[in-house]
Amino acid sequence: MQYRVLGRTGERVSAVGLGGFHIGKIERRAAISLIRAAIDGGITFLDNCWDYHNGESEVRMGHALRDGYRRRVFLMTKLDAHSREMAAAQLEQSLRRLQTDCIDLVQMHEVIRPGDPDALLAPGGAIEALLAARQAGKLRYIGFTGHKDPAVHLKMLASGFPFDTVQMPLNCFDAHFRSFEAMVLPQVVARGIGVLGMKPLAGGRILESGGAGAEECLRYALSLPVSVVITGCESRAQVEQALRAGGAFTPLSAEERAALLARTAPAAADGAWERYKTTSLHDGTDRNPHWLTASVA
After folding, report:
1. Strand pairing partners for 195?
2. Which tens digit of pLDDT belongs to each residue from 127-155?
3. What is the domain extent for residue 138?
């Protein structure tokens, strides 16, 4: 596995990270075994979120990180809440589920609406809970993520808050439609912020379209100026695929990149395959708006 520096944090992390959503889709013992296989293979960056499968993804990861595995990884999770009170409550739940006293990176999740940056960064917003938690030693770094519109990411960056990381969709279809690669990535890199690329296969849609193969997609994303490319795995074969991609990686040449983009342009032009941008199917907080503001029992 190749390793990269996570922006100005100086942390060294695996070039490929393990996504948290998919580990909640398989049987619990299989998920725990899969996480440990990924770590044993060299993956050190682990992604998760408070809301994945109603917390089950975090529970499974917490079990997997017993027996000394926790100290071998850089652990990230995400919170949905917009308010200080709700974000603090969600963080306490994530800490318990993940069985840790400190999470390496906590990100504000699904920053996807024009009003989200104002709500998150305002007095009384979630950012206050994260800053207090960092001061208390419950987390180390702060970031945000979103998958809908580059303009919302740019609004977050324009706030001037010194984010440690930013997560965004980066793949060979994104380059053609409402592109995070074109509009957001250069600004994040210029600020020295760690770049977390997600949806390298566009949720598998690139494969369905016939535009490119899985390892070709991973290689495309890894060729961008990113710290980590996060990919979801539901089987040992997919973990092995991720390990191959991160271990044998060589950047795409200019000619290879141009050929891949030319091949994918027709299918990608209108965003139909990137449903996380063009529909609400991937918007957990849209279906569950109470996650943003309600109290947590």
Report:
1. 166
2. 999 999 999 999 999 999 999 999 999 99
3. 8-288
Nearest to 88 by CA among 52, 47, 124, 140: 124
Q: Which sign does the torsion angle of CA 49, 187, 160, 74 carry?
A: positive
Helix/strand/coil for 113 = coil
Give the Å distances, CA to CA, from 151 to 35, 112, 167. 34, 9, 14
Asked whether residue 297 carries a pLDDT value surpassing 60, the answer given is no
Number of residues assigned to the chain: 297
Is 12 part of a structural domain of the chain? Answer: yes
Phi, psi (deg, nearest 5) at residue 216: -65, -40
In this structure, is residue 92 part of a structural domain? Answer: yes
The total number of structural domains that make up the chain: 1
Query: For residue 81, what are its two tokens?
Result: 């809440």
> What local confidence, expressed as pLDDT, does residue 288 receive?
85
Per DSSP, 125 falls in state: B
Domain assignment of residue 295, yes or no: no
Q: Which residues, listed in sequence order, are joined to residue 125 by a DSSP beta bridge?
A: 83
Burial (Cβ within 10 Å: 0-12, 13-18, ≥19) of residue 138 = buried
Q: Parallel, antiparallel, or unpaired for β 103-108 and 228-231?
A: unpaired
CATH number at residue 258: 3.20.20.100
Q: Is residue 22 part of a domain?
A: yes
b/e map 58-78, b = 16+ CB within 10 Å:
bbbbbbbbeeebbeebbbbbb
Mind listing the pLDDT tens digit for each residue in 170-221? Answer: 999 999 999 999 999 999 999 999 999 999 999 999 999 988 999 999 999 9
* Predicted structure pTM score: 0.95
DSSP character string of 217-257: HHHHHHTSS-SEEEE--SSHHHHHHHHHHHHS--PPPHHHH
